[in-house]
Amino acid sequence: xxxxKKGRKLGTDASHTKAMLRxxxxxxxxxxxxxxxxxxxxxxxxxxxxxxxxxxxxxxHSRRLAISALGDKEVVHKVFSDIAPRFEGRxxxxxxxxxxxxxxxxxAPMVILELVE
Length: 117
Fold this sequence. Notes:
117 residues; 54% helix; globular
């Protein structure tokens, strides 16, 4: 039973889901735009928004939390120096989901997940 289990399962076990979400978050923050399935995009946008909020805070503790969540110091540096200052006037909602339609092979709904502005 899934009682008190938070988040979507995404067809895999918990460790693979966590690794996949971490990889998607790194890709979104590094490229600022990715193409993925709708359920994966909806699941990863919370993590991306949280990391950008840490970047806006800008202290050492937030930087260490971001490094722990992403595992990539170069991407964390980009978030804290380039991405977070762009969102200083925005209180949240740093990502946008644009629907593309079904994927040809399995008809999974595809979307583009990108950073706003």
